[in-house]
Design a protein that fits this description.
Structural class: mainly alpha
Oligomer: single chain
Largest sheet: 3 strands, antiparallel
Number of helices: 12
Keywords: Hydrolase
GO molecular function: hydrolase activity
Pfam families: Glyco_hydro_88
Number of strands: 11
Distance between the termini: 48 Å
Helix content: 40-55%
Family: Belongs to the glycosyl hydrolase 88 family.
Protein name: Glycoside hydrolase family 88 protein
Strand order of the largest sheet: 7-8-9
Low-confidence stretches: 15-21
């Protein structure tokens, strides 16, 4: 009997190793296939995007490539994409292009006109420094962080996102608007803290995250898009949306920014309140009754709900179903992979890892993945930028590609048993 039991144990262990090997091989194949597509698409892109002052962003209504100038918040994603392709392939062709496009953004290190300098500079120069350790890139990032801090108000305890403006529909005037997206910029501040030792950077990041946690996150862990503050007292004046369906709804990409941002905050601080917030936001996303079976969300979690008295005119009849937002899925997948390494409960680890894997595999197939030469040479299709503004609805978006590639690299590292931050 002992011999038989030993043979059975050996047999099942052999089967386990065999099937695990098959699963990992399948995952390695899908990751390599996606990066092969990225190489094809971006090789084509580089033949049309030759002006280093114009950064690929999306498709125009007429089907042509839309580019933006250095002031646009998405400028840093294109060089970031090139760095990710270089990281996977180790081909110096991609490094050369990444360097050219990254260095074209340098004067943004003095940009104080909006909060997006974190997106613009950390996605470009942050990856450049991580992969080259070039001191000049570090210095650019530190100056960029100083510029971002100029938008911080001690009275409010937050970094102002946009300059004063009207809300959608013009119902209210926003004096000190802070958007959930702003959480992503905080990584730049932690970089500056780690490389200078100046605690001001860290303190501003933590205070901003705490205020976001208090005022953007609802009791059920859904999120508001915009919080408007009194700039003198820090009092909350308005809780609204700019890109979601309604002030009371949950804009899908905003929820994704929150998951990503609070996961990142826990990485740097190891403060459990940020981990609790990240898992609460993630569970709201994954457990939502309106999340489609493929885990690629509609542009707003309440897009199918009958919400009246909107601040803008929404004609849902123009769509057979609410548009999906592949960018929200890509951001969330990348965040969930990291979050799965922080939670202690094995059930939660599996939940987040498996959900991310499911998202990535579904994004890697029709209808979301592009065929070579189509989609204006972006990788992912079917994202939504700003539906209330009727801008970038059901189009490719450069930042959808960015977080998709980042998530693929994170998936590869975890499958190989490597730390995400190395």
């Amino acid at each position: 009997m002992k011999t038989n039991n030993g043979i059975q144990v050996f047999f099942f262990l052999t089967l386990f190793v065999f099937f695990s090997s098959c699963i990992n091989k399948k995952n390695d194949t899908y990751i390599a296939t996606n990066f092969s597509l990225a190489e094809q698409q971006y090789t084509n892109m580089l033949t049309t995007a030759t002006d280093l002052t114009q950064y690929p962003r999306t498709s125009e209504l007429d089907g042509s490539l839309r580019t933006v100038d250095i002031h646009n918040w998405t400028g840093g994603f294109w060089p970031g994409n090139l760095w990710y392709v270089y990281e996977f392939t180790k081909n110096d062709k991609w490094k050369k292009e990444a360097v050219r496009w990254t260095e074209s953004l340098e004067r943004n290190k003095y940009n104080t006109s909006h909060h997006d300098i974190g997106f613009m500079m950390y996605c470009s120069y942050g990856n450049a420094y991580r992969l080259t350790q070039k001191e000049a890139y570090r210095d650019v990032l530190i100056q960029s962080a100083r510029s971002l801090c100029e938008r911080y108000s001690p009275a409010v305890g937050s970094i102002m996102s946009w300059n004063p403006r009207k809300s959608i529909g013009g119902k209210n005037s926003w004096d000190f608007p802070v958007i959930i997206d702003n959480m992503i910029n905080l990584e730049l501040l932690f970089f500056a803290f780690e490389h200078t030792g100046d605690s001001v950077f860290r303190d501003i990041a933590i205070r901003h995250a705490e205020r976001t946690m208090t005022n953007h996150v609802r009791s059920d862990f859904s999120t508001f898009h915009v919080i408007d503050y009194n700039p003198q007292t820090g009092e909350v004046l308005h809780r609204q949306t700019a890109q979601g369906l309604a002030d009371s709804s949950t804009w899908a990409r905003g929820q994704a920014w929150g998951i990503y941002g609070f996961t990142m905050m826990y990485r740097f601080t190891r403060d459990d309140k940020f981990l609790t917030t990240a898992t609460g936001l993630a569970d709201f996303f994954l457990n939502n009754k309106n999340l489609p079976d493929d885990f690629v969300p509609y542009w707003d979690f309440n897009a199918s709900d009958k919400i009246t008295n909107l601040d803008w005119e929404y004609d849902s009849s123009r769509f057979t179903e609410p548009p999906r937002d592949a960018s929200a899925a890509a951001i969330t997948a990348s965040a969930l992979l990291e979050l799965s390494t922080f939670v202690k409960e094995e059930e939660k680890q599996k939940k987040y890892f498996n959900a991310a894997e499911r998202m990535l595999h579904n994004l890697s197939t029709a209808p979301y993945i592009a065929k070579p030469g189509e989609n204006n040479n972006f990788i992912l299709k079917h994202s939504v930028g700003n539906l209330p503004g009727n801008n970038e609805v059901d189009v490719p978006l450069v930042y959808a590609d960015y977080y998709f590639l980042e998530a693929l690299l994170r998936h590869q590292r975890l499958l190989a048993g490597r730390n995400l931050q190395t």
